[in-house]
Design brief:
The chain folds into two domains: 278 residues, 2-Layer Sandwich (BirA Bifunctional Protein, domain 2); 83 residues, Anticodon-binding domain (Rossmann fold, 3-Layer(aba) Sandwich). Helices cover 27% and strands 30% of the residues. The protein contains ten helices and 22 strands. The strands form five sheets. A six-stranded mixed β-sheet has the order 1-19-18-20-21-22, with helices on both faces. A five-stranded mixed beta barrel has the order 10-11-14-12-13. The protein has a three-stranded antiparallel β-sheet with strand order 5-7-6. Helix 1 crosses helix 7. The longest helix is centred in the middle third of the chain and has 21 residues. The chain binds zinc ion. The site of zinc ion (ZN) has 8 residues, from loops.
């Protein structure tokens, strides 16, 4: 259990106005995050709980899909970035001079690292297909700030890379990944308003790529949704001069919505296997190119998107599976702390997580404690006071329901 008496938390009485989005203000007010510098954040204990819960849901679904977790390096060698010709092309690449004449990249994406890495264990068709993923900090040297839910300079991503014998196998894997992603967004409580959105592939493929866009008023993208078949298109797909025409059913009827991107998937084909000579021997010992796909989910970005999605004017009502704890116990008198700990331990035996608000010596009143519980977005509040103990119990209030006395 988290005991707030051990916890140097300082929730703010009013909402700091730091940007045009509510989520950042509320996350700062609840002391979930602190800002280190523009677009770089520190997660406090409670913020980190939420981030880890999002991360673990993503991890579970990637594992269920049969991918293998790895952890690649944050630093990339210039040699590899030169090999794909992207050292001078990716304008957000952070470049670091090392103590020798060498230079490194702080990786914004990991194709340059994962492709030679995969080359170490792909020899024949028997080694394919497979996929690896990681959950790791990424860096982008953003030059300008944009409004909305911003592009950060440092953020947590899940990136998965798949390796295939042929295009048909990539296609099947890619289609399945769409379903896996929607299951992730379902578990994160944003499935209903998340659209699989067509986007252009890169110049080396005639296939589309796909973005996962969650509807938000402050979203940084416009998506074009067909009224007839619900196919969603990003702005670059739409011929803005001649108007919208659905790529699926040719209807011109559509609506435009603001959305924020929470994931994307990309058929890489042989772009990176060409650069790194990633080949395999087929059944007849004939050399063939490995076909690749990549699949990203913005974990820290999701925390903001979910916060924005579930925010009201006062606080963030986290879905119960993402809240920093299941229960919040308010204890008002020092002699009741032991009883409160007993209740907390009982809940923990049922695999519930608990925040115990035992800030007695700080002389924090009931109003402040109840307010902090709301601000943290915790759905179940327990109050233990002389009044409830007179009735031999504690008061349980579930979000949106009447309070009840639970006998001890
Ligand atoms: Zn359509």
């Amino acid at each position: 259990m988290i005991k707030l008496s051990n916890f140097p938390i300082k929730t703010l009485k009013s909402r700091p106005v730091v940007s045009d989005n509510l989520s950042t203000s509320l996350l700062l007010q609840a002391w979930f995050i602190r800002q280190e510098m523009a677009w770089v954040y520190i997660y406090t204990t409670l913020g980190l709980k939420v981030l880890r819960k999002i991360e673990n849901i993503v991890r579970e679904e990637m594992d269920n899909a049969g991918a293998n977790e790895v952890l690649m390096s944050s630093l990339g060698s210039k040699l590899h970035w030169d090999q794909t010709g992207r050292w001078d092309v990716v304008d957000v690449l952070f470049k670091l001079p090392a103590s020798t004449w060498k230079e490194y990249a702080l990786n914004p994406t990991h194709e340059e690292i994962v492709t030679p890495f995969a080359g170490e264990f792909i020899q024949s068709y028997k080694d394919l297909d497979f996929a690896v993923y990681q959950i790791q900090t990424k860096f982008r040297n953003e030059k300008r700030a944009k409004s909305g839910l911003l592009r950060w300079r440092e953020f947590l991503m899940k990136d998965l890379y798949s390796f295939h014998r042929d295009e048909a196998s990539l296609d099947a894997y890619y289609e399945n990944m769409k379903k896996v992603y929607m299951k992730v967004f379902d578990r994160l409580g944003i499935w209903k308003d998340t659209y699989i959105t067509l986007a252009w592939g890169w110049d080396f493929t005639d296939k589309y790529s796909h973005e996962f866009q969650t509807l938000l008023d402050i979203g940084e993208d416009d998506i074009y949704i067909c009224d007839e078949c619900n196919t969603s298109h990003n702005e670059e797909i739409v011929d803005l001069e001649n108007g919208f025409e659905c790529t699926n059913c040719n209807s011109k009827n559509h609506r435009v919505e603001k959305a924020s991107e929470v994931g994307n998937i990309f058929p890489l084909m042989t772009k990176f296997s060409d650069a790194f000579w990633l080949k395999y021997a087929d059944e007849n010992w004939k050399e063939k190119q490995v076909i690749m796909g990549c699949y990203g989910i913005g974990i820290s970005r999701l925390m903001w998107v979910i916060a924005e999605y579930y925010a009201n004017e006062k606080w963030i009502s986290w879905p119960e599976n993402l809240a920093p704890a299941d229960y919040y116990i308010i204890v008002m008198w020092e002699e009741n702390i032991e009883k409160a700990e007993e209740i907390a331990k009982k809940l923990e035996l049922e695999w519930k997580s608990v925040i115990l608000d035992d800030r007695i010596w700080k002389k924090i009143g009931f109003g402040q404690k109840a307010w902090d519980c709301e601000l943290f977005g915790i759905a179940n509040r327990i109050v233990l006071s002389p009044k409830t103990l007179e009735q031999w119990g504690y008061e349980l209030t579930k979000r949106g329901e009447e309070s009840t006395i639970i006998k001890l």
